[in-house]
Amino acid sequence: MRLLLIFFIFLFVKSCFSSCDVGESPPECAAYCFRVVKPCLSYLDVLQNRVNAYESVVPSDILARVSLTDTKMDILGRQMAVLQEKEEDYQKKIIKLKDRLAKGVPSHFGNFQKLGQKYYYVEKELRETWHGAVKKCHEMGGFLVSLQSQQEIDAISGKLKEYSGYWIDVTDQFKEGVYVSISTGLGTTFLKWDQNEPSQNGEQCVEIHTYKEPPVMNDNVCSNKKYFICESSAKVDDTK
């Protein structure tokens, strides 16, 4: 458009000079033609400024849009990576859950919690025999709780149901009256018996019950089903 306008101005100026009267001096003719052409020249200058502005603004705007698009794509890529990582994590949890279900480990098993100085898992829904409780704790990566002091009983007592019994790792199945920890294979050094306990009479596995406060120990028949408490030497997250 700019070139076309210049071409028309050139033709007009040429025509203007050719149409000057013979009696007019060249300066007078030139002044007349300049007055006529001046608006066109002014518009040409405005047009040039617009073109310059367009050429300077449009490329930078395009670059800004491209940069913004790249930024959005980068953010989207990171979000996709996070989602993929979460999906892989969920897949691992599903596989772990299937393995646990195949072994008979209930799906509601949660994480071990730090209570006092140790990590415990207190099962308050599933009841097992003493041997079943030993197996379940092993499947969770721990062992049936081995209570070593009154402080440890105090640490877990707030997590126990009222009027309930929980298997611990103590038994005298190997020799009547000799209580050992199945977790360590050693004789127990701490026993907090209830009054008139242990009664024995075929009761060879030990529970801690909450029929009294604070909880105390009682021997019971190993085949009876009770809640149980698992312990871990380190924090165990069996959902991963």
UniProtKB/TrEMBL annotation:
Alphabetical UniProt keywords: Coiled coil, Signal
The keyword Iron-sulfur is assigned to this record: no
Classification via SUPFAM superfamilies: C-type lectin-like
Any coiled-coil regions, as ranges: 73-100
Domain C-type lectin: 115-231
Keyword Coiled coil: yes
Signal peptide start-end: 1-18
Record-linked InterPro entries: C-type_lectin-like (IPR001304), C-type_lectin-like/link_sf (IPR016186), C-type_lectin/snaclec_domain (IPR050111), CTDL_fold (IPR016187)
Protein name: C-type lectin domain-containing protein
Lineage summary: Eukaryota, Metazoa, Ecdysozoa, Arthropoda, Hexapoda
Gene name in the database record: Dana\GF14434
